[in-house]
Amino acid sequence: MTVFRAKSLLFSIVTLSCFLYGAAESRAYEERNYISAAYEAAIAANGGKSLVSTGGGWFPYPDWSDREGWASLLGNDVARIVAEGEKYLDYEWKVIPATAYIEYERSGERKIMENPLEANRKALNTLIMAELAEGKGRFIDQLANGLWMSCQMTSWVLSAHNPRQSSGRALPDPREHIIDLVSAQYGATVAVAWHFFRDGFDKLDPSINYCIEDAVRTRILDPYFDESVRKANWWMADGWQPGQIINNWNPWCNSNVLLCFLLMETDQTRLDEAVAMSVKSVDRFMNFVKSDGACEEGPSYWGHAAGKMFDYLSVLYDATDGKVSLFGNPQVRSMGEYISRSYIGNSYVVNFADATAKMTPDIYLTYRFGKKADSREMMDFALYLLYSDGSFRLPAVPLGNDTYRSLETARILAGMTEEAEALRLRAESCPAEELLPELRKSVPAGSWYPETEFCYLRDGYGNFLAAKGGFNNESHNHNDVGTFIFYSDDSPLFVDAGVGTYTKKTFSDERYTIWSMQSSWHSLPLINGVPQSYGGRYRSSDVSCNLAKGEFSLDISGAYPAEAACKAWKRSYRLGKGRLTIRDSFTLADRRAADVENFLVLGDVYLPGEEYEIDGKRSRVRSGQVVIIGERAAAELSFSKSLTPSVDTMVLDDPRLASVWGEVLHRISFASSVDAPVSASYTFTVTVL
Predict the structure, then answer these.
(1) 8 Å CB contact between 601 and 580
(2) In whole angstroms, what is the distance from residue 481 CA to residue 475 CA?
(3) Which helix (H) or strand (E) is 376 found in, with range?
(4) Using CA of residue 282, residue 288, residue 294, residue 298, what is the dihedral sign?
(5) Which of 522, 355, 550, 311 is nearest to 445 (CA)?
(6) pLDDT one-digit tens code per residue, 15-45
(7) What is the pLDDT of residue 506?
(8) Residue 608, φ and ψ in degrees, nearest 5
C-alpha cells in the first residue's frame, strides 16, 4: 500500500478568491438582462422619474428611538443580543501593523492580517445590534471608538487582494483605493452604523460623522465610479469579454456597494448613476451563471453567490418600494432551491470543485430567500436545519460580520419563530424520523441541471448519487469531468475530497500540482495512463439524464489531452434498488499504456481474499469484489475481472480536509493490462451491505 501525504498548510483564507481571472476559455453567456428589464420598465411606469431617493428613508427598519419597533422585531432575542454586546464594551480594537500585510508577500500568510480585521468587524456588528436592541445609548461610546479606528485605517481591503493595486503590493497604497469583498462589506457595516446612530455620534463630536462620511466616500463610493481602478475592480465585469469569469465577487461586492450608496450618497444624480451601474453589473453575473440555477462553485459558495445576488435584489426591492422585483423569476428561484437540493443529510452536501463536503447552510438566508421566492421547499429546509439534540431550537439573529443579514433576519424572526415553535410542539409527540422527512418531502428524488450538467439521484433505499459533466475551467475548477459521489443513509462512501487550506498556490499557475485538483484523485479513469487536463476545451459531450430511470451518461473523452489517444469514453451511471452500476465503454486510437480506473473512498478497504467484519460477523472478500466499510455504511464493489485492484492512502494532515474526512482517504485503483483491447468496457457495481 503506497502512502501519500498531503503537506500541512499553515494558512487559509476567509474570503473567496477569483481563480485565474481572464484565463478561462470562451463559455456560455446569455444576454438575459432580467434586472435591467425590470428596472427600466419600472422607471417607465414611474413616468421616467427616479425610483430611489437620497437620505436613507427607504431603509425598512425602525429608527433607533423606536423602542416598540425593535421590541416587535427582535422579540425574545433582545436579552441575548444585549448580553452579547456587553461582552464588547471593553473590547480592545485591534490595530493591524504594516508587517501583517507584508507577511503575505513574505510567506503567503494572510490570517495574521485577516483575523484582527474580522474580529473588529464582528465587534462592530454585535455592538450595532445590541444598541438597536437596548436603545439606551450604552454602546455608543464603544461604537464610536470602533468606527473612529476603522476610518483611520488606510484601507479595508485584504492583504491578499491588495496586489491588484497599481503598486502590486500587499500593503495598501493611500494614493489609490480599490474595492474587494471585505472592504465593500466593511463599508456597508459602517454605513448602517452611521444611518442609525449619527445623532448619537454628533452629541459626542461631529468629527466622528465627518470621518465616517469621508471614509465611505473615499473607499467605496468614489472608487466605484473611478475608471482608473476598473481593472482592479474586475468583479464589476464592465466591458466583459468572453473568457472572463464572473463569480461570487460580483453580487457580493455590488450588494454592499449599493447599500453604501443608498444610505450615504447625497447627490441624486450620482445615486441614480450608481444604481444603474450596479443593475447592469449584477445582470452580467446572472447572464454568466447557468439559468438552470446550479452553483458550480458548490454549496459552501452558494451564500456568497446566489445568496448575495438575493441580498442585492432585496436591497433594490426595498429601495424602489417594491417597484423592481425579481423574486418571481424562475432562474432566481432555481438558484435558491439549489441549496436545499444539494443537501444530502447529516451536514453533508454535494461538494464538487472547491466546496467543502460538510457544512450547515445559512439557515436564515435560506428561509428569507424561500419566503421571497415563494419556495416552501427552502423554508422547510431552513426549519429542518433548526433541528438538533431532539428538538427544534428557536431562531436567533446571527451576530457575525454581515450587518445587513443580521438586520434582515430580524425582519423574518417572528414568522420563523412561530413556525419553529409549532414544530417544537409537534416534536413532543411525533418522532423525529417522521417529522424531519416531512420537511424534506418537497425536495424531488432527482434533480437535473442540464446546463451545468449536475445530476442528483435518490433511489428510495437511502442511497444518494451526484455526478457531473461540465468542463475543466469552471469557477473554482477541479479536473473532474464525469466524477461522482455516493452516500448511503447520509453516510459517505465514494467521495470528492474537495479542497485543502487555501494558499497562494491554490490560485496560481501551480494549482493543478495540488493532488485534490487532479482527476487521478477523483473517481475517474487514467486513459492510456493519462489524466484529464485543465482548460475550457476539456469538456464532456453527449450528456443525457433520465431521472425516471435513475440514469446519467456522458462521453468524457473530450476532457483528456491528445496523448490519451481516446476516440470515445462513454461513462454511464444507473442507480436503483440499493445498487449503483458504473459502466465505461471506450474506443482508443491505439494502446499506449494501461487504463487505471480510480475511486476515492472514505472508509477501510478490503481486497479479494482479505477478511472483514460487519456487525460482529467475519467474512472474506470474494474474487472480483472489493469491500468498503465506512463509519455508518458499507458496500461491496464488484469489478471486471480483466482489472487488477490496488489501494493507495492519502494521509490528510491539512486541517481543512481532516476536519471533514478524518485522518485518511483511500483510492481504489483498477488497472488493465498494458495490452488491453483498444475497444471494450469496464463495469463496476456498488451494492450496499
Answers:
(1) no
(2) 14
(3) helix 376-385
(4) negative
(5) 550
(6) 333 333 333 343 478 999 999 999 999 999 9
(7) 83
(8) -50, 135
Reply yes or no on whether the pLDDT at 301 is more than 50. Answer: yes
Per-residue b/e over 646-677, b at no fewer than 16 CB within 10 Å?
ebbbbebebebbbebbeebbbbbbbbbeeebe
What is the per-residue burial (b if ≥16 Cβ within 10 Å, else e) of 188-210?
A: bbbbbbbbbbbebbeeeeeebbe
Cβ contacts of 148 within 8 Å, gap of 6 or more:
208, 211
The alpha carbon of 677 is separated from its chain's Cα centroid by a whole number of angstroms, namely 43
User: Are 281 and 250 within 8 A, CB to CB?
Assistant: yes
Q: Where are the beta strands (DSSP E) in 421-562?
A: 446-449, 454-458, 463-468, 471-472, 484-488, 491-494, 525-526, 535-539, 541-546, 551-555
Dihedral angle sign, alpha carbons of residues 167, 170, 176, 180: positive
* Distance of alpha carbon 585 from alpha carbon 400, whole angstroms: 50
Residue with cell 417597484: 323
245, 282, 297, 424, 596 from 28: Cα distances, Å: 11, 17, 16, 46, 33
pLDDT of residue 232: 96
Mean pLDDT of the chain: 94
DSSP code for 512:
G
Question: Measured on CA atoms in the order 512, 514, 517, 522, is the torsion positive or negative?
Answer: positive
The single-letter code of the amino acid at 64 is: W
- The share of the chain scoring above pLDDT 90, in percent, equals 89
Measured in whole angstroms, the distance separating CA 154 from the mean position of its chain's CA atoms is 29
Give the chain's radius of gyration (CA, Å).
Answer: 26
Confidence of residue 6 (pLDDT cuts 50, 70, 90): very low
485-to-455, 456, 682 alpha-carbon distances in Å:
11, 10, 19
Helix, coil or strand: residue 539: strand
Residues 6+ apart with CB under 8 A from 136: none
Element (H, E) at 582: strand 579-588
340 phi-psi bin (left φ>0, alpha ψ -120 to 50, beta other): alpha
Longest CA span, the chain? 85
pLDDT class for 637, splitting at 50, 70, 90? very high
All residues at 6 or more sequence positions from 388 whose CB lies less than 8 Å from its CB, including other chains: none
pTM above the 0.85 mark?
yes
**Rounded (5°) CA angle 251-57-59:** 40
